[in-house]
User: Fold this.
Amino acid sequence: MTEAHPGGKKPKEFHIKIDRVEYHVVEEELTGAQLRQLPHPPIGPDRDLFEVIPGQADRKIDDTYVVEIVNGKRFFTAPAHINPGHEVADHT
Assistant:
């Protein structure tokens, strides 16, 4: 995802992690769909993508959601069928 820039100035590069694998990107913003394309193979529809937000609940990243990219930002994937916070009725 490296692009040539006028004037020969090297673009700023960001180091982010998805599932503990480091990726280098130059974009200051990426959509969820673009983030899903970074790993090889890309993250499939059977997995959800989450942003780790220190001190807060993790944020689920939809394909159209725009994420501001900064160094050290971390993401993880989880099976899409998990429904956090869903309580199962006790029928005992």
Q: What stands out?
A: The first strand starts at residue 14 and ends at 18. Residues 32-36 form the longest helix (5 residues). The beta strands are 14-18, 21-25, 29-31, 47-51, 59-60, 66-68, 74-79.
